[in-house]
Design goal:
Cobalt-precorrin-4 Transmethylase, domain 1, Rossmann fold, 4 domains, five-stranded parallel β-sheet, five-stranded mixed β-sheet, 18 helices, 32% helix
Length: 510
């Protein structure tokens, strides 16, 4: 059998967590990704280097590429013997024209396969707390395209639809008056519950409820716009008890993450899990000194240093990589005391099978001073960033210890396209900008330079007092400071901030 080189992949409705395992595997392997506009944006950054990207999206009548053009592009790229992924929002075969595309490919002699996706017909109501089937409420379900509602010669059987328990209309915002009028005319009660879900499964999801009699006016007042799913049926009444997505603590909030891209995933994932819309704006990148002469000198003199101090996860990762570059492994730590600032730094060793000897309760360098003050004179190596505060090495040296500072990495600023961030800030759409180090503050100030957005207009969220100090020095307004100076601590502080309307507003942090 001929191995297919074109795959029609359903990306799901928008929440990136709803793509299938197989679908994500193909996205990452693709040589060519031909994608829609809706439900695919999160995956564009997951493709391999060199993957060709083609945006053929269609939105509310605005067609970037005609369907004929899409079909021809699929065949053209397939004949170049490339792995082609046609990434479609929702499911390819649920009003996605996937059948048309596959027929065209088959008739052209191109082998292809389909990877189903989660359709918005199911997922949007689910995220609104509406089970589209429910015992005691409905024994039937219909999914209908709203585009066909006003067309002459449409094959929609309104009389039959009026008798079905739950009817879900996709892409029916424009034709909502026609839909409600036809259902009522065919015998459906005007008091039948109706819900409209805009941007279903996205952090910007908006849900309004009414009846067939008044949903048109309610939707207009709420300015419901495409893409939206309309649910008609008694099951809509269950939303009052079952809604869950819109109750997440950060739902509807837009938060900018300024960490380096390779570090940002944990913070971004936690924020999205809590319902936030995340804008990634990496302002820095970490450059490891994997095989520096400084580290080689440290290895040569390592017998002089019984205590090794690590101040960050980056330091641990840089240390492990540098050992490997010099033909060593973690057995190098035998007989030495490993001291870590912060639980995340300690965890970076713990997951490698090394239990740190000491982790202070507070997560700043000053917290180590009592430890070294009581210690008899010893050799102390501080393995850290190239640029850092000198509080710790200076103080430890004053206690009579031999101190060596070893630079494992440095921070560079990232000059990237940040138009989305600037536009969102200028439009007043950003609720918080997160700062996880002084360097992210400095990097974000560079991002704003030359724009109309001023630091004092930014609502910042700081991971701790050192970062807060840098924010103040550069003119940023602070709304949140973490009590525990960790990523989970920062996330918890942001949740408290939004849960309490008066939290930190007008306080000294402001």
């Amino acid at each position: 059998m001929k191995r297919p080189n074109v795959y029609l992949v359903g990306a799901g409705p928008g929440d990136p967590g709803l793509i299938t395992v197989r679908g994500l595997e193909l996205v990452r392997a693709a040589d060519v990704l031909i994608h829609d506009q809706l439900g695919t944006a999160e995956f564009l950054g997951m493709v391999k280097e060199g993957c060709e990207l083609y945006d053929v999206g269609k939105f509310a009548g605005n067609h970037k590429v005609s369907q004929d053009g899409i079909n021809e592009l699929l065949v053209e790229k397939a004949r170049e013997n490339k792995l082609v992924v046609r990434l479609k929002g929702g499911d390819p075969f649920v009003f996605g024209r996937g059948g048309e595309e596959m027929l065209y490919l088959v008739e052209a002699g191109i082998a292809c396969e389909v990877v189903p996706g989660v359709t918005s017909a199911i997922s949007a109501p689910c995220y609104a707390g509406i089970p589209i089937t429910q015992r005691g409420y409905t024994a039937s379900l219909a999914v209908v395209t709203g585009h066909e509602a006003e067309k002459e010669g449409s094959d929609i059987d309104w009389s039959a639809l009026s008798k079905i328990g739950t009817v879900v209309f996709l892409m029916g915002v424009k034709n909502l008056p026609v839909i409600t009028r036809n259902l009522i005319a065919c015998g459906r009660s005007p008091q039948t519950p109706v819900a409209m879900i805009q941007n279903g499964t996205f952090p910007t999801q908006k849900t309004v409820c009414g009846t067939l009699a008044d949903i048109v006016e309610i939707a207009e007042a709420a300015e419901i716009k495409p893409p939206a799913v309309t649910v008609v049926g008694e099951v809509v009444a269950l939303r009052e008890k079952l809604q869950w997505f819109e109750k997440r603590p950060l739902f509807g909030k837009t938060i900018v993450v300024t960490r380096s891209r390779h570090q940002a995933s944990v913070l971004c994932a936690q924020l999205r899990e809590l319902g936030a819309r995340v804008i990634e704006c990496p302002t820095i990148k970490i450059v490891q000194h994997e095989n520096s002469s400084e580290f080689r000198d440290f290895i040569s003199d390592s017998a002089q240093y019984e205590h090794l101090v690590f101040t960050s996860v980056n330091g641990v990762e840089g240390f492990v990589d540098a050992l490997a570059q010099n033909g060593r492994d973690l057995r190098f730590l035998g007989g030495k005391k490993v001291i870590c600032i912060g639980p995340a730094t300690a965890e970076a060793f713990t997951r490698r099978g090394i239990k740190p000897d000491f982790v202070p309760e507070s997560y700043v360098a000053e917290a180590l001073l009592p430890y070294f003050e009581k210690l008899p004179a010893a050799g102390v190596a501080i393995l850290r960033a190239e640029k850092a505060r000198e509080v710790l090495p200076d103080a430890v040296a004053k206690f009579g210890h031999r101190v060596k500072v070893v630079s494992l990495y440095h921070t560079d600023y990232v000059d990237a396209e940040n138009g989305e961030t600037i536009d969102a800030l200028a439009a007043g759409q950003v609720d918080l900008v997160t700062f996880t180090s002084s360097s992210t503050v400095e990097g974000f100030a560079r991002v704003l330079a030359g724009s109309a957005v001023k630091p004092e207009s930014i609502q910042g969220a700081s991971i701790g007092p050192i970062t807060t100090q840098t924010c103040r020095e550069l003119g940023f307004k602070l709304a949140v400071e973490a009590i525990e100076f960790t990523i989970p601590g920062l996330v918890a502080a942001m949740c408290r901030h939004f849960q309490d309307a008066s939290s930190l507003v007008g306080s000294p942090l402001s």
